[in-house]
Automatic annotation (TrEMBL):
Its EC number is 2.7.13.3. It comes from the Bacteria. Keywords: Kinase, Phosphoprotein, Transferase, Two-component regulatory system. It is an enzyme of class 2 (transferase). GO terms for molecular function: histidine phosphotransfer kinase activity; phosphorelay sensor kinase activity. This is histidine kinase. It catalyses: ATP + protein L-histidine = ADP + protein N-phospho-L-histidine. GO terms for cellular component: plasma membrane. InterPro entries: HATPase_C_sf, HATPase_dom, His_kinase_dom, HisK_dim/P_dom, HisK_dim/P_sf, PAS-like_dom_sf, PAS_fold_3, Sig_transdc_His_kin-like_C.
Length: 674
């Protein structure tokens, strides 16, 4: 909406939406001004917005500009009401014009008096002809005494004089509609005329603005009134203003003593006088200062960002990818010059220079990954090489990009790419070290497997011969001591054979050579097969064995030998680490997932979580004191765990020091036969 301007500007304005078949709103307002002659005009929309008014209206009511702003209708009524002897005459019409108009939308004139004694008349009409179709209302105000004086002067004057008076009245109205202060001096530098806006700019000095007053006298009055922006002494200030006045060189800004700013434009007239326009630009200067402060803050933030990014050993950048695939780089950190040999300005001017810095072997994979991420608008990470444009040095970068989609379909990517050249070198060395370790581990496994076979042959002979001696197959040994020696030889051989067998099993599992001989068997049979091997030792130590295995549990598809080995190792550990008088409970039940759980719980010494991790490693034992309380090679639990994993299951160990340990052998559902 074009408000508070010369009405002729409405002819060129874009018309707002109007009712079909009616003239545009700007055209209607222009017509209202033409009808008003030299009176005051106020145009109000049906929504009580002030659409327009002329300077004469404000002068007539002695009102400031702000009181007739677009949204100030009720404030305007309040201001007018305080100036009228009988406010209802005026205010009721402005509030509800339909109640006072005829069917054609006309409101007859109504005379009223202001509290300062002047007599005014208010009349009006709708903007589009009828009250029902009104899109607004135009009000005309006439100052009767003024018009009476003008009429009397016109009656006395000749036709030419009447024309001059009319022209002068029109000129004054035109001057009043100028946006800003207007002043005119003649060729003798004497004051001729100004508008009310100019007069309001010099409170305390307005009495000097009378026709015929010399410009220099007005300047002295302004200095005395305190309007002293510029040079600090009277003579210099007046000399400066006279120089500018007599030799106008175009518009310039003038600082006022109250801190405000004026835009001054003075020009020589055809008659040698000076016409000047002054526009208050205080708000504009304040906005400029705010904008400059904002720009300074942004520049400081960018400097801080570049400093921060300069401490990151890599490249920080923003990259915008448009819908058509074109790429722009709004920001990139200075490290791009160290790593790629490209200045930030060069990359922002031509983003393809950064792409060309990527190693040829990495471009295709990087392009494919970025396109996939763009389609899905998802974050992505990558590692690639860049080649320095000057030195040819190759640097590994690793980083990621986070997308921010825009309404226009483009995507802004925020990325950080860190120099990982040294890390890549360490990773490659670590990979080679792992390969060497795996090779050494395979050699160790093969050595253990071979040595286990080599040791079993003489051990079998030792065990066999000791059994013959114990059975005295070829006659009595004679001395009891020889019998005891033969018994010790046989027990030691059996123990060493068990160790070698365990070593061989571990070696086979690690080499991937262990194969299962699967058969159907019941859980109860599995438990009953293992209990005799530990019952005697448990009885010797006063340990109670409690078994709770239901008969209705389904059969399992297992390797009987290997699963007995698992359960027997667990039971042997429970007997070994349970103090005399303790209890070992064996139980079995179905799991929620359809598998089966075989549990062995003891009241032994227990372990911490760290000790459990140690116990599951081959050749490691929790008790590492020189005088070890418990014998063993440290292969029982690790071997049991690996054999359970070969069946697709696992071992779970829950233990509390001083309270005991519960080992759960979990059998997967696919090994349950129904």
């Amino acid at each position: 909406m074009y408000l508070y301007r010369d009405a002729t500007e409405f002819a060129a304005a874009e018309p707002p939406v109007a009712e079909p078949g009616t003239a545009s709103l700007p055209a209607l307002i222009l017509k209202a001004y033409e009808d008003a002659a030299s009176g005051g005009v106020l145009v109000i929309g049906t929504d009580r917005r002030i659409l327009s008014r002329n300077r004469r209206f404000l002068d007539m009511w002695r009102l400031p500009e702000a009181s007739a702003a677009e949204g100030a209708f009720w404030a305007l009524l309040s201001g007018m009401g305080g100036l009228v002897s009988d406010p209802a005459v005026v205010l009721d019409r402005l509030r509800d014009p339909r109640a006072f108009c005829d069917e054609a939308g006309r409101l007859d004139g109504q005379v009223f008096r202001l509290i300062d004694g002047r007599t005014l008349e208010i009349a009006g009409r709708s903007l589009c002809g009828t009250a029902d179709e009104a899109i607004g209302w135009v009000w005309y105000f006439r100052e009767l005494e003024r018009e009476a004086r003008l009429a009397a002067a016109l009656r006395k004057a000749s036709a030419s004089e009447r024309k001059a008076i009319r022209n002068e009245a029109r000129l004054r109205d035109a001057i009043e509609t100028i946006p800003g202060g207007f002043v005119l001096f003649d060729a003798e530098e004497r004051f001729v005329v100004c508008n009310e806006a100019y007069r309001a700019m010099w409170p305390g000095a307005a009495h000097l603005l009378v026709p015929g007053t010399p410009f220099v006298e007005i300047l002295h009055g302004l200095w005395d009134a305190g309007f002293r922006g510029g040079p600090s002494n009277r003579e210099d200030w007046i000399a400066d203003r006279l120089e500018r006045f007599r030799n106008p060189g175009g518009a310039y800004e003038q600082r006022r003593s109250n801190g405000g700013w004026l835009l001054v434009d003075e020009r020589i007239t055809a008659e040698g006088g000076v016409a000047g326009i002054r526009v208050d630009i205080t708000d504009l200067k304040r906005r400029e200062a705010q904008l400059q402060a904002l720009n300074d803050a942004l520049a400081q933030r960018e400097a801080q960002l570049r400093h921060l990014c300069g401490n990151i050993p890599g490249i920080v950048l923003q990259m915008r990818v448009q819908v058509d695939g074109s790429v722009a780089v709004p920001f990139i950190s200075d490290h791009v010059e160290d790593l790629c040999g490209l200045s930030p300005a060069a990359v922002m001017a031509d983003p393809m220079r950064l792409f060309r810095a990527i190693h040829r072997e990495d471009r295709q994979a990087l392009t494919a990954a970025s396109r996939t991420a763009s389609r899905e608008a998802a974050p992505w990470r990558s590692s690639f090489r860049v080649v320095h444009a000057e030195s040819g040095a190759v640097t590994w970068l690793r980083g990621g990009f986070v997308p921010t989609p825009s309404p226009d379909g483009s995507i802004l990517w925020d990325g950080v790419m860190v120099d990982v050249t040294l890390l890549k070198a360490h990773e490659e060395e670590l990979s080679r070290a792992i390969d060497r370790a795996e090779l050494a581990n395979r050699a160790k496994t093969e050595f253990l497997a071979n040595m286990s076979h080599e040791l079993r042959t003489p051990l079998n002979a030792i065990i066999g011969f000791s059994e013959i001696m114990l059975s005295e197959l070829f006659g009595p040994l004679g001395q009891q001591r020889y019998v005891d020696y033969a018994r010790d030889m046989h027990a030691s051989g059996q123990h060493l054979l068990a160790i070698i067998n365990a070593l061989l099993d571990v070696a086979k599992i690690e080499a991937g050579q262990m194969e299962l001989d699967e058969r159907a068997m019941s859980v109860r049979a599995l438990v009953e097969d293992c209990l005799p091997f530990v019952r005697e030792k448990a009885t010797e130590r006063g340990i109670e064995l409690a078994v709770a295995v239901p008969d209705d549990l389904p059969r399992l598809s297992l390797d009987p030998v290997r699963m007995r080995q698992v359960l027997l190792n667990v039971l042997s550990n429970a007997v070994k680490f349970t103090e005399p008088g303790g209890t070992i409970a064996v139980a079995a039940d179905r799991t929620a997932g359809g598998g089966l759980a075989l549990r062995v719980a003891d009241t032994g010494i227990g372990m911490t979580a760290e000790e459990v991790a140690v116990a599951l490693q081959p050749f490691r034992q929790v008790d590492r004191a020189l005088s070890r309380r418990y014998e063993g090679t440290g292969l029982g639990l690790p071997l049991a765990q690996r054999l359970a994993e070969l069946h697709g299951g696992r071992l779970e160990i829950d233990s509390v020091p001083g309270e005991g340990t519960r080992v759960t052998i979990l059998i997967p559902p696919e090994r349950v036969l129904g």
